[in-house]
């Protein structure tokens, strides 16, 4: 029954009890006839009984809660104690037969007493029921009594309900007292109270197994049977009493009739003797006298306890006595005085009168006894009817109970069978799982630790079949040392409760040594003794080897970590040290335990560094990285040393900062070195500046010198050249061939010198001329170049293919010179084929990239740099004329425009000269 229903039953029970008790009490107090019964019944509730019911109704209401307030508990226990007092005193009155004064203490019950000597005293059985219920209520808070209370309440309910049913069955309410003399209405109210407590909150948690319930149920059926048996036997007693009563009445009638007959015999005998005087008539008299005396005695005994017939019997006995006396006197008179002396007696007819009186007494006795007989007869009929009613009613109840039991058992058995099937299936399922799990499973007996079960994995691991394993113990399977160890551990496991874990156990199997991780579980029997030991082992051999290696590797790494030439540490989110390596500890001069968990990083740096640290820490937490940051750390001895720190931040899954890992370099030596390098660099820079200035000055000087020299040399050279021509003209015809050749050499030399000077002048002019940058259309420039070089192009039978070129910001004559030199070289350094020259431009992001491409003789890569140096030539003058200045002029022009020049070439296949001119020249 669930708590909700249980609480309702208790509530309803308390309400009904309080209501009926109040009605009854009102009936008593206001003297309202009918109300004091509380219900249509025969007997009134006694005032004390109603009062006790009221108290119990209130107590049940107050105590049947999950949470009982203190004052409610106090009130309830006070009321229960009062009930215990009233019922206890009443019981003591019954037992010790005294007056405790409790019966009419609260109410003088004069109005409805019915002449009962115990008016106001509650029934014996009622007081017992109240005492039992009080004790139950007082013991309810103690759980260990709950089973007993449960049993008592259940028995009480069965007892009360049986009593109630029997009373109901016997409509005439016969005299059967079934154990208790409690009235129907009291029984009902007790039944309600007992049921309310039984289904109340305090006991609702109790749960019983099906077997216990069925056993209890049949116990109750047995109790009902006992009650029925007692009821029937009591009714039989009643019937027997009635039959005895009837026999008694019949005997009384017979005895009195016999007495009457004997009295008549006496009278007849006496009369015959008186009339005839013959002694023979006295024989009857003499025989009848002892017989009548005996009958009178017997009648006296029979009616001794018979209040109805006793008066009549007494009068009959005395009549018989006086009759006998009269007869004796008559006989005496006849013997002494003769027949005549009887005239007077006949006149008085005293004998006749006595006989009539005697007859009347006998008739009365018969009448009384017949009346009793007819009462007993009807009571006998009722008794027989009651018996058959009880039998029928309980037969019916028992049949109903048995049918219920049958249905419940049938239903439960079916459910159980279903569960059994399920269990079987589940077992099979589990068995399959256990059989096939990759871990070894084994079962040992709880007493002698012999193996009783293994799974497939176990067979595989042990290298033995199940048949070879089962029945063996550890000593049969393992070396003694191992077996001793296992047995010791197993015993420990069996002496405790729960799973015991053995992370590493070595066993020697047929397949060699294996390492196991085993969990052992004791399986206890209901008596608390170990039945089995279940073991689950995982083969961790491979894992262990890997772990050992990992361990070694970790140790190695840890060693590296500790002995690294740099410091390592990690700090938690509150900046406390979590880990630190030996190197850093050595630097600082601390022991690990002095640092870890106790010191913050900021505690170990100088105030200036602290300021820096706090400034940067927030940013570090955000960015997660700190790079090459310098701090000054303080050693334990107070000395300070510079460090360089790199750190990584570690975050949790939500991105909250957790900790950081730092690498630290002792910066002392580096710093000294750095300072030195800085100093050195500064000095170097200074010297470079000086030298550059010197160089620039000498360059300018040189350029100026070259310019002046070449400029000034031109004039004398022109003179040499023109005077040579004049000399040649003047001596024309007088000169032999040798003279002519000499003059030619001199003219050639002067020409070459002129060219050299011109080129040199050109080159040095680039450093001196005033440059004006303007928009230059390179297409026009190329047209110029083409016309300048037209003769050479024709001569060489060359093609000059010029792509669309841009307009650039540049110094126009210089760009003309640039293209002229490059195209000129392409024409000059050709191979056997007529030169094919291509000029083009690609626009890059910031620059124009021009190229001049030929398919001439090409240049070896090792000369790519060299050719741009002034006077550097790859050919002799006899092979190719030239001064070695052309490309250096090109380089200078490009550099002055802020661009670059380079060559890509392959010997024999041709060259491409590239140069860039910035798109925006400032
Ligand atoms: P030169 O007056 O000798 O032409 P340059 O400075 O113009 O002087 O060239 C230097 C050298 O670079 C040349 O002697 C030549 O060997 C080489 N050279 C220049 N342009 C080319 C080219 N287009 N193909 C092959 N070699 C070249």
Provide a descriptive summary of the structure in words.
- By secondary structure, the protein is α+β, with helices and mostly antiparallel strands.
- Helices cover 60% and strands 14% of the residues.
- The chain is built from 25 helices and 17 strands.
- The strands form 4 sheets. Strands 2-1-5-4-3 form a 5-stranded antiparallel β-sheet, with helices on both faces. It has a 5-stranded antiparallel β-sheet with strand order 7-6-10-9-8. Strands 12-14-15-17-16 form a 5-stranded mixed β-sheet.
- The protein starts with a helix and ends with a strand.
- About 1% of the residues have low confidence.
- The structure holds adenosine-5'-diphosphate.
- The site of adenosine-5'-diphosphate has 19 residues, from α24 and α25.
Bound molecules: adenosine-5'-diphosphate
The helicity comes to 55-70%
The largest beta-sheet arranges its strands as 2-1-5-4-3
Give the mean pLDDT: 85
- Kindly report how far apart the N and C termini lie: 102 Å
Strand content bin: 5-15%
Strand count, sense and barrel status of the largest sheet are:
5 strands, antiparallel
Shape designation = rod-shaped
């Amino acid at each position: 029954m669930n708590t909700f229903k249980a609480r309702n039953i208790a509530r309803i029970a308390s309400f009904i009890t309080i209501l009926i008790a109040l009605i009854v009490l009102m009936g008593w107090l206001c003297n309202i006839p009918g109300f004091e019964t509380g219900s249509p019944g025969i007997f009134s509730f006694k005032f004390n009984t109603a009062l006790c019911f009221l108290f119990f109704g209130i107590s049940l209401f107050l105590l049947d809660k999950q949470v009982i307030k203190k004052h409610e508990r106090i009130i309830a226990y006070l009321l229960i104690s009062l009930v215990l007092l009233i019922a206890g005193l009443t019981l003591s009155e019954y037992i010790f037969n005294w007056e405790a004064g409790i019966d009419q203490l609260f109410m003088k019950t004069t109005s409805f007493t019915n002449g009962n000597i115990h008016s106001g005293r509650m029934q014996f059985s009622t007081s017992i029921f109240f005492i039992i219920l009080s004790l139950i209520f007082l013991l309810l808070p103690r759980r260990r009594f709950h089973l007993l209370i449960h049993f008592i309440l259940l028995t009480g309910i069965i007892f009360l309900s049986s009593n109630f049913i029997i009373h109901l069955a016997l409509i005439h309410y016969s005299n059967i007292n079934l154990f208790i003399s409690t009235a129907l209405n009291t029984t009902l109210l007790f039944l309600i109270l007992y049921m309310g407590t039984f289904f109340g909150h305090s006991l609702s948690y109790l749960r019983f197994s099906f077997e216990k319930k069925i056993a209890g149920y049949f116990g109750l059926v047995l109790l009902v049977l006992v009650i029925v048996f007692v009821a029937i036997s009591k009714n039989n007693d009643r019937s027997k009493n009635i039959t005895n009563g009837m026999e008694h009445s019949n005997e009384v009638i017979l005895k009195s009739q016999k007495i009457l007959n004997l009295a008549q015999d006496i009278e007849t005998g006496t009369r015959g003797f008186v009339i005839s005087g013959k002694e023979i008539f006295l024989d009857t008299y003499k025989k009848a006298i002892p017989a009548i005396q005996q009958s009178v005695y017997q009648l006296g005994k029979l009616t001794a306890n018979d209040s109805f017939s006793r008066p009549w019997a007494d009068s009959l006995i005395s009549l018989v006595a006086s009759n006998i006396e009269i007869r004796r006197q008559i006989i005496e008179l006849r013997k002494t005085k003769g027949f005549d002396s009887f005239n007077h007696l006949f006149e008085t007819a005293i004998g006749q009168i006595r006989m009539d009186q005697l007859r009347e007494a006998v008739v009365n006795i018969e009448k009384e006894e017949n009346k009793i007989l007819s009462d007993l007869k009807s009571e006998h009929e009722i008794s027989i009817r009651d018996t058959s009613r009880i039998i029928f009613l309980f037969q019916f109840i028992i049949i109903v109970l048995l049918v219920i039991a049958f249905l419940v058992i049938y239903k439960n058995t079916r459910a159980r069978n279903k569960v059994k099937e399920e269990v079987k299936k589940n077992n099979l399922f589990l068995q399959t799982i256990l059989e096939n799990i990759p871990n070894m499973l084994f079962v040992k007996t709880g007493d002698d630790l012999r193996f009783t079960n293994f799974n497939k994995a176990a067979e595989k691991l042990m290298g033995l079949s199940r048949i070879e394993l089962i029945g063996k113990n550890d000593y049969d399977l393992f070396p003694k040392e191992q077996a001793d160890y296992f047995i010791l551990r197993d015993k420990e496991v069996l002496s405790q409760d729960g799973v015991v874990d053995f992370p590493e156990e070595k066993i020697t199997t047929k397949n060699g040594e294996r390492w196991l991780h085993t969990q052992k579980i004791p399986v206890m029997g209901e008596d608390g003794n170990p039945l089995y030991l279940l073991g689950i082992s995982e083969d961790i051999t491979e894992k262990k080897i890997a772990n050992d290696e990992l361990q070694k590797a970790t140790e190695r790494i840890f060693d590296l970590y500790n002995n690294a030439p740099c410091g390592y540490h990690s700090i938690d989110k509150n900046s406390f040290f979590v880990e630190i390596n030996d190197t850093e500890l050595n630097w600082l001069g601390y022991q690990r335990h002095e640092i870890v968990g106790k010191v913050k990083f900021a505690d170990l740096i100088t105030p200036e560094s602290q300021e820096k640290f706090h400034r940067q820490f927030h940013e570090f937490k955000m960015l997660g990285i700190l790079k090459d940051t310098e701090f000054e750390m303080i050693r334990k001895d107070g000395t300070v040393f510079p460090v360089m720190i790199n750190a990584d931040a570690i975050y949790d899954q939500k991105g909250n900062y957790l900790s950081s890992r730092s690498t630290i370099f002792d910066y002392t030596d580096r710093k000294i070195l750095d300072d030195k390098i800085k100093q050195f660099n500064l000095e170097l820079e200074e010297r470079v500046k000086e030298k550059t200035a010197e160089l620039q000055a000498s360059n300018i000087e040189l350029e100026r010198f070259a310019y002046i020299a070449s400029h000034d040399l031109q004039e004398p050279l022109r003179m040499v050249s023109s005077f040579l021509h004049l000399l040649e003209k003047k001596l024309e015809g007088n000169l032999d061939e040798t003279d002519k050749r000499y003059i030619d050499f001199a003219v050639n030399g002067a020409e070459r010198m002129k060219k050299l000077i011109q080129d040199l002048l050109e080159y040095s002019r680039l450093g001196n001329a005033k440059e004006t940058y303007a928009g230059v259309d390179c297409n026009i420039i190329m047209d110029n170049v083409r016309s300048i070089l037209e003769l050479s192009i024709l001569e060489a039978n060359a093609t000059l293919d010029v792509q669309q070129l841009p307009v650039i910001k540049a110094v126009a004559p210089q760009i003309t010179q640039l293209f002229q030199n490059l195209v000129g070289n392409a024409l000059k350094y050709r191979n056997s084929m007529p030169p094919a020259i291509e000029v083009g431009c690609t626009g890059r992001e910031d620059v124009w990239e021009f190229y001049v491409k030929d398919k001439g003789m090409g240049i070896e890569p090792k000369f790519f740099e060299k050719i741009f140096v002034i006077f550097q030539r790859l050919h002799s003058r006899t092979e190719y004329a030239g001064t070695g200045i052309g490309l250096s002029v090109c380089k200078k022009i490009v550099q002055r425009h802020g661009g670059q020049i380079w060559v890509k070439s392959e010997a024999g296949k041709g060259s491409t000269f590239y140069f860039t001119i910035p798109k925006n020249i400032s």
